[in-house]
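Recap quiz, item 2
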Amino acid sequence: MSTPEYLARRLLQLVPTLIAILVVVFALVRLLPGDPASAILGDRALDADVERINREYGFDRPIPVQFGIFVRQVLTGDLGDSTSLKVPVAQLIAERLPITMLLTLMAALISVALAVPLAFVAALCRDRLADGMIRGAFQVGLSMPVFYLGLILLTVFGARLGWFPVGGDGDGLLDLLYHLVLPAITLALSLAAVLMRNLRAAIIDVVDADYVTFARSKGLRGSLVLLRHVLRNALISTVALFGLSIGTLLGGAVVTETVFAIPGAGRLMVDSITGRDYPVVQGLTLALAVLVSLTFLLTDLLQAWLDPRIAR
Amino acid sequence: MTDAAHLEAAVAAGRPRRARPPGPLVWGGAILGLSLFLAAAPSLVAPYDPLAFDYGAILQPPSPAHPFGTDNFGRDVLSRVIHAYRIDMGIAVFATVVPFVLGTLVGAVVGYAGGLAETVFGRVVDAVITFPFLVLVIAIVSVLGPGLINMYIAVSLVGWVFYARIVASEVKVQKRLDYAEAGRAMGYTHARIVLRHLLPNAITPAIVYWMTDMALAILLGSSLGYLGLGAQPPAAEWGVQIAEGKNFMATAWWISVFPGAAIVVTGLGFSLLGDGLAALLRVRR
């Protein structure tokens, strides 16, 4: 199968996934105990208000009809209005989500930059002191909750040493990037640990493969063999893992943004829960799931590029 | 032990083998044994009442009387950390046991039946893994209301999928082996073949994943506690405690730092046990 064909097939696979996402997000608010309108308005709601909300959101219609309305609204970019902030949910998401995406992207880059060289060191010094130390440190990193690590980094490098701001999103893009350094490191550590562990095992598998021995026997330089033959092949499974981890990373971003008071989508999510702002919770869940499915698409394509056999 | 295992052990004993101490298993088991003991009988070990205010001893740094210091209400941090084992170890068990049992059963059925069941299950997996796990759990908790029980419900609604996926792929391999064929030839029912013969052979990877999942459950539970969506104050829970101490980090670091250390140590215990089990049972992960 050619690359365009693979791309087309992969895009087509996106359709059932998106439908499933819509079903789950639609079902979410219907999980509410009692009727959704009283849940939105709180316990002391007046009957008249409950009726009005029911009519406004269409809760009094049959479920399939409600779903149809929901899908039509989503497709036209109408995610309803925030009940507490009184602005369209779509507009809120458009404002806040880019910050979360930037944070997640920075964290992803940092974790790859940490994981790749350390995995090489650990794999090539297998079972020696350096390997043990790197694996031990990452084992701890894996058990460290994001909010705890963030709090410690914030206190030490923000408040105590004053190297980084202690929260907020700053003024302008450069300042924003500066404000996101500590949060991104916080978020990156556990992903780096997961990737490191996987990549180390993959490198150990690949290093002894016949084609690597062959490349060496041809007299290719050691570093060239490592980059062109070992890394490329070891990366294939790690890229898949990276794609699957993006959801964890976005979940971690929710917590990180709360710790560092960054006004991104995660912070908005937590605030909306406290304020029982269901349209926002629903809209954000939808937006984040779509973001993840697009990332799956990207990592699949990246894998196909690393190993063209996958596209066949 | 089966004959094959005996043979393998004999061969292994015959060749010079690098001594590999069962370190992870021992350490992980020791940490978790202690954690379970603290969860079962916190009052035997904790020097103070975890909820008792003492306005005469507010924000005291660690000292012989209060090894982990006191918080802004004069509560003993060590006693709170110890009592929190009950809630957090409880989270590790109760947030994972339903997904483990349900996921294993569904996975066994799906893997054995194949066909339509497998296709439908594949779609469900695709849908669930597109949602960031924490975001979906937070969203469900937000609808059901904060608290531990609702958190267990939320985690169980999502978590079974991962076990089912592991067991289904394992059962798919096992059902093609001769002993499954023999069971069918003997006229055993499908239920008997799956439950009595396939499942015991297919469940090991799910058990190893269970260990990792319990560590993840503690991370998730304490995160929700920190965000105010899990255990509710004044309950002693590590995430709640860290949130309570966050505004005192510069002046009274001990309020947050010790509960966090407990999370890290417990998490390490679970991953060591998982690694040890994986090595012992030869599960590739």
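Residues 170 and 202 of chain B are 5 Å apart (CA to CA).
The longest helix of chain B spans residues 77-113.
End of item.
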